[in-house]
Design brief:
This protein is of the alpha/beta class. The chain contains 21 helices and 13 strands. Keywords: Signal, Transport.
Amino acid sequence: MMRRRTTLLASCTALALALGATACGGGPVSAGGGGKSLSGQTITVAGVWSGSEQKNFQKVLDAFTEKTGAKTQFMSTGDNVSTVVGSKIEGGNAPDVVMVPQVGVLQQFAKEGWLKPLSKTTEQSVDSNYASVWKNYGSVDGTLYGLYFKAAHKSTVWYSPDALDQAGVKPPTTYDAMLKAGHTVSESGLAAFSVAGQDGWTLTDWFENIYLSQAGPEKYDALAAHKIKWTDPTVVEALTTLGKLFKDKQLIAGGQKEALNTDFPGSVEKVFGPKPEAGMVYEGDFVAGVAKDQFGKKIGEDANFFPFPAVGGGKAPVVSGGDAAVVLKDGKNQKAAMQFLEYLATPEASAVWAKAGGFLSPNKKLDLSSYGDDVTRETAKSLVAAGDSVRFDMSDQAPAAFGGTKGAGEWKLLQDFLRDPSDPKGTAAKLESAAAKAYQG
């Protein structure tokens, strides 16, 4: 879905690196030398990517071809991966590999019996090269089905250095300090935050960062699995914290009404466009691509980020998203598909897209020099350093009816809460009602 994908994503200029980096030293790795063992075979790979993301992933596919001789075909599914893949399976034309953008969809595919367990070689690479949390998110009932190749870091607050300098404030390290800094920015002539309320997914991300920091990872996991109800006091507390921001007209560009009419690209424009209206915008690392490609900003100079700050007495959160590669049972070339996933599990494969830009890898063996600029390196370093404290986007773990549908479920209810944040307890009750129905279904 466009949430977290953004075909506007883009690349930061990359180092003139050869096609990859070794796991330990950062020296060049040749994409060849694979013996062309798959010559004459073709694998079909389906995913949501289009635009620059598809173009950059094609470089990974081309590197695999150069290494193995296998031909590849990419099929863009659009947002509704499960429907498209299901119809392809029913029609006897299943792709070999699918890049799945949500934990909930991966679990759905496994429960439908559509997936093959990944090879021992891939599993060994995951055990060696990834924090165990990524293996957990790629597994269903203890069996590894998904390899997380591309990740997003969704605990980054992006800001205009000029705006903060003009206000005389430095990047804050606590949530309260962030709101205080926001008031100072507002007093200097710009609103503090641009909020993309028209896109409900951005509001779920705001909630998730606050909840993870304030309630802690155990409660986060329980709420993500609906093992505790949305009426739990920790949810009401997080909504109350979020509501303080939403109802403060000094802090939000144009107030609640304008926020509800601002989509994600528009929220970035309000900070980094030709006529700035706000000093900061919260969203994932993909903000950098929009700021650079759409508005010509130099990342690290004209646009920078600070980590989403700790809330209350909690730790600073690290919320992530990502795309997992899976192999379909009904694909026509499973052997080559398995070898493709073995390749994707290597730092060599990740280095190809890291070089192209607009990419983060959860593979801790990928040399950070593979990334093309210091800000992307810092973002990647933060994601990998978080280790097992990383938590996958909660709404992406939920059934789509609750966590991933425009105008329904969590998206709509948090938009309603932005419109009127006066009743956190009532909003929690509505969220629980919608969640109960979706999880039961």
